[in-house]
Each structure stands twice: as structure tokens, then as C-alpha cells.
Design a protein that fits this description.
753 residues, globular, EC 3.1.13.1, RNase_R, cytoplasm
Amino acid sequence: MPTSPKEQRFLASLQKDILEFFELNDYRSYSINQIHKAFAIRDRKTKELYADLVQKLVIENRLIRQSDGNYRFDNESFQIEGRVDHVNARFAFVIPDDGSKDVWVATADLMNAKDGDRVRVQARRPSEKKKNDRPEGEVVEILERKSYEIVGVIQVTPHYSFLIPDSKKIYEDIYIPKTETLQANHLDKVIVEVTRWGTPGKKAEGRVIKILGKAGENETEMHSILAEFGLPYEFPEMVELAAEAIFTEITKEEIKKRKDLRKILSFTIDPKDAKDFDDAISYQKLANGNTEIGVHIADVSHYVKPGSILDQEAFRRATSVYLVDRVVPMLPEKLSNGLCSLRPNEDKLTFSTLLEFDPNGIIVKEWFGRTVIHSDRRFAYEEAQVLIENDGEEIDAYEPVIKDLNRIAKKLRDFRFKHGSVNFETVEVKFELDENGTPLAVFPRERKDAHKLIEEFMLMANKKVAEYVHELKKTEPRNTMVYRVHEAPDPEKLRVFSAFAKKFGYQVSTEPKQVSQSFNALMENVEGKAEEHVLQSLAVRTMSKARYSTDAVGHFGLAFPFYSHFTSPIRRYPDVMTHRLLQLYLDKGASPERAPLEIQCKHCSDREKLAADAERASVKYKQVEYMSLHEPQIFDGIITGVTEFGIFVEIGETSCEGLVRMVDLNDDYYDLDKENYRIIGKSNGRVFSFGDAVKVKVRDTNLAKRTIDLELIGMKSGGDRFGNNRIRRREGRPANVIPRGKDRRNNIGRKRR
């Protein structure tokens, strides 16, 4: 065995040479003697070394030893690197870094890798006999642990303790020695640092490094969600000090460098509970009869300089995180709620897009640059909506302005949809909380014209900035820019969705040029129908995920060939990057190298996903908490998923999703018809399908796991207990009756395994 890193590198190099030799000659096999001759090896010791290396390649599934004793290159095997997605206790998928097909890996073959770890996998291409085209493999090396810190509930015994992880994708508890608990109490929420990862037959071991508090308390649970996803909930002292040291006065010299728009009518429209206002709208009628509308964005890049401690922390976070009861900001409060918040009756430094519209809502002129504004008023969305809906006498001096802005916004929206923008209205959940964070009510967040008004002008500003930078240089390579990109749906996902929609009687085209119009027609046709939310939810899942990139591949969902994020630098780091690049080009600067910015884009996309996962976890926790406090009652729901272990149902009035477990459907034995998104009773022929309206009540809630178990009461349509939702069996063909009792339970057990 090698005794030094130098010897290890030497042997790795020899092994690579041997593998490359076989790969170049993959059409034939070789004996050990032929390998020795090919490498001109004559001495016994080196021959033994090469024989050992060949055997090691066989063990690693890189070479195949044939029945005749010869060796050949394994054409069916390959190695990939990627991240573990541990979907359940039995198996995981490894998502390759290169975007190729996911690799299925049994839990026993993970080498104790955990969800989110980067690993190297030895994989094998599926045989032609298999219907599933997904390769299978095993982890051969753990390249990088996602984190050494795990959050969960500690269970304390007299001699030792162990951690039950909060993450649904970590399936083993962690042993904690008696001396490493920080004196945490039984059932406290804690953060544990893993000191030794598990091995076959032996648990992972760790030590408590932070006690978050008593499980079930609001503050503890919100902090534990942030910790679970590796998100910070406080700023380092040095970052806070750097923010406090920022010079706050706007000097005359600074104003001279900017376009002074302080005399132009400006205002903000935000949620009524918003604390930071990073965008404002200005409005003025021009002498030529046109309307100039300004989109003014807090000039964060003026205060946060590249490479500063504030910039480093903002990049590390990359985004603000919006939990149910709080915002974890990207920037310290002095910036997010103070200097960079466009509060009314204060001069503020901004980066602006000025757009001149003709009476038909067509943009005829545009301008970009640094400005200073003075917001005249702060509107909540509800206040602006009252002015939009008012049909009587004018009730506010701003009413004509708001109504004209809404008129232009509707023209922009109609133009978008006409040219291929996809009209998805996803449902967001809003909570009413008491002073302790306990949910008193949960309801869907309503989007009205006031919300859409602001959205349209923000979309247009983002689009125009991206177009301006792209067109500054007409030849390749174009100027480097941070784009928000969104690829067209994966053809296979689209095909599956189209087939599913067809079962409801709807046509969804899979032709690339017709997809967006087809989706919009579907959304219009299902509006107000029972299957509306189901099809809308599935359609969203069919779409690719938007991300940041320096490649201008366009935004499919918006049907914009060039699109960037410019309008929220207080809460998104890519917007800060966009501001800096735009100013660089306005100053006639040279385009920076693309590669370093692409790495930053990838980091920002990853952090955005983490923040979204944490936000969903906080919503789910509050939904489960709300249902746990609710008096037992029967709810109307929609089946939103069917699996071999149960039916997922979303309750209409609360948007809470729960599971009706298969083992609790005790009137029959049910088979999963995966292709048709339904389960079918073997004896009675009852069918429960994706999209069916049902009646349920809460059976159990588990706050620690953030799950709701439901009991199926019946079909919403009435009839017998489950309505008339049955498959009629062909006459003369006996039903496959499954006996009740022990045999039936064993059958169910075998099926579930």
C-alpha cells in the first residue's frame, strides 16, 4: 500500500493509463501477459503491481473479467459526479452535474452519503430489456458533504442521546455521547455537528453546538427551518458595523452626477406590512401628448462596493428569505429598511428606467441611468385597488394617475400574452398570526389589478435593461450580462402532461411554437372548474425552473428573448450585479470576462432554491400547526397526487395538503394505476383519480415532520360512501377478491415493500 501522497498520485496515474489503454481498444480483450507486453514490462515486481491495478479496476466496475480470464473495457459502465436527492428511505437519485439523466442508487449503495452531498457514482446504462431508461449505480466516493451541521430534536436518555433530524430526507438518527449534549433538555431543538459519519452497522456520531429552544415554539421552529437549509438568521458583528459606518448624507456633488427627478410625481405601491420599498413609479404627461413612466430602483450598488465586507455577505446570502412570520434580509436593516428604502418625503438615490409611451401604450423612447427621486406618497396595494375600482366621483388626487397606469399596464399584459407569454396564476398562502406566531387563519393570497400594475412595469424595466445591454454591441461576443433565463419545457414532461390533460378532455400541444398559446387556452378553459388547481399545479411542475446565467437563452414563460433582474437589489444579489454591469456600459467600460460571473450566477440560483425550500417549509409548518388546532370537521378537497402508499389531498379552504394512507382504505385492496394517475379497488372497482373532489377530515398531525394524515370520508358528488366512482367489471369476469384479515394485511405489506 502507498505510504505517501506522492506514491498515491503515481499509482492513480498508472491506473488511469491502464484504463485509457482498454478504452482505446474497447473492441477486444487482453490477458494479463498481453497487458504486460503492451506496456513493455519485464520485471516481476512491476508485473505484480499492474496485475493488482487491473484487479482494482475490475472491483471498481471499470473493467470486466471474462470467463476465459481475459479483461475488457466495460462499455456499459460509466462514472458521473452529482448531488444526492434521497427521495425515500429505500433509494436515492444522483443528479449529474452535467445535466444528463439521473442515476438510481439503492440506499445500501450510497456509502452513507446524505441528501445534498456531492458524490462520484459508478453507473451502468440500462439494458434494452428494461422499460425504464434511467441508469443505475453505486456511490464510489463522497466528494463533498452538503453540511456537517444537522438540525433536529434531541432525545435524551440516562446514558446517551440521539438526534432525530428535521429533514425529511435524512432517514437515520445521530448518536450523541452523554458529554456532548451542551446540557440540552429532552425534546429540545438543537443543531448538531457531525464528528463521524456512519458506516455499515454503525450510526453517525455528533455533538450539540447550539440549542435553539423548546420544540413546538414559534421562534424555535422558524430558526430550526433556517438552520435546516443552511440559511443565516443574524448578521456577523463586522457586517453590522460596516453598515453603521456608511455615510448617509446625499451630497450636492452626488446629485450633480445624476438626473434629478425630485420634482416629478413619484410614489410606491407595496404590501401594507412591507418594511422596505425598493421600487417606485413616477408619472408625467409630456407636451407631445405622450406619457413618461419611470421605474426607480434603490441604488444599492452606490452603498455596497465590490469586494467590501457588505458585498461579501450579500453575495453569500444572495437573496432575502421570506418565512411566514419574518423576513431574513440580504442586507442589514440600515440599508434594507433605511438608506435603500424609498420612503415617502425623503430624497433617495436610485437607478432608473424612463419609458415614454404613446397613447396606444407603445414605447417610443427609453433612458437608463442613475437618478435622485423624492417619493410623494406610499400606497398599500389595497389603497391603490380602491382607486382603480372607484366608478363614482374622484376620491383622491392620485386616482387619475393610478387609473392611467393601470390602463397602460393592461395593454402591456395583453401584448405579452398575445406574443406567447404563459398566463400562470399560482396560488400563494397567507396567514393571520397572533402575537406568539400562532396561526389564527389561513387563506389564499388574492392578486388584483394593483398587484398586476406594478408587476407589468417591473417586467418591462427588466426586459428593457437586458435588451439595451445586449444591443449595445452588435457583434459576438456580446457584452457580458446577468440574465434571468427560463428554458422551454422538457419534451418528455410536456408529453406526459399533455396525455394527462387529455383525460380531462383538454388538448395541450407539444409543438414548440404552440406550447405557450396551448397552455394559455387550457388555463382559460379550466377556470372555475373542479380540475382547475390540479391542472394548473401540474402545468407549473412541467415547466423548467428559471435561473441566472450569462447566456442569453431567453425567458420562455414571459416570451422575452432577453430578460434580466434589475428591480429588487435590496433582496436579490443578481440585481446588484445587473446594476454594476449596466453602469459599466453606460460609462463605456469594457465587458468583463464571462466565466467568473457565470459562477456567481450558479451560486445565486442555488441560494434562491434553498430560500424557496425554506419558505415552503415554513408555510407547511404553519399549515400543519393550524390544522392541529382546528376542531375536527369535514373538509372539501381535491386529490393532488396518487402513489403506492396513499392519496394526497389538498383542502380547498386552507390550501393544506395531507395524505390518506393506503393502509387506511380498509374497504378493499387498491392497486396503483400509475399511467392514469389513479388507484383502483380490486374487489369493488372503486376509482380515486388525480383531480377527484373528495371529502376528508384530519386524522392526525405531526408538527415535527410537518405532515397531515387525513381520513377519506367520501366523494364530494355524494351517492354511496365513495359515490358511484367505479370501474364496471366485464360480465363473466370474477373480481379479484382479496380476503380480509391476516392474509390481506400481509399482501398489503408485500405490496408496499
